[in-house]
Amino acid sequence: MRAGGRAASGSWVPALMFAVAMLGLAVALVAALAGWRGERRKTEALSREADSLRRGVLDLRDTVKRSGGRILDTERRVATLRDGLDEGTIHNLKLVGFADPVNDIKADLAKHRELIPRAGEIHGDVGFYLPDKIRILNGRWVMAPWSGGEEHEGWMLLEYRLEGTRIYWKRLAIYED
Fold first, then answer.
1. Closest CA to 144 of 174, 167, 104, 103
2. Cβ-Cβ contacts under 8 Å for 105 (sequence gap 6 or more)
3. Which of 132, 170, 177, 137 is nearest to 155 (CA)?
4. Exposed, middle or buried, 135 (CB in 10 Å: 0-12/13-18/19+)?
5. Is 0.85 surpassed by the pTM of this model?
């Protein structure tokens, strides 16, 4: 019986080891499936988000197409108004004879170097050399940078008055750097 008992008791060990190995394999398989499902959910969520973004871009493109030239017209109007002259004032100045009111006012200011104090004392060329920085604040005032060589520069607040196409200037305040 011992021989048979040993044989019987010895045969269950490999079976137990096989069962444990199969259980470990099953656990690993379940973990792999769970990981795959998690990755699949993430992929599906990203796919839904990408579809949503794609629809949003297409909607935006359609909106821009429907608006036609209105956006460009608005941009042009804002560029014209950035110097503080409203459309009515610009229209009236054109009727009086200004071809491009904003740039005409800036160009006229550039001719008036005498507005810069001590212009005769400053060595170097004195003037209003940065027309892009000159700001027409409204139908009465202008803020302009001036320069006189490398050592003298600053800002000036000016008042202007129009008589026809003639512009009269008055310096109100000056700041020298």
1. 174
2. 98, 136, 142, 160, 167
3. 177
4. middle
5. no
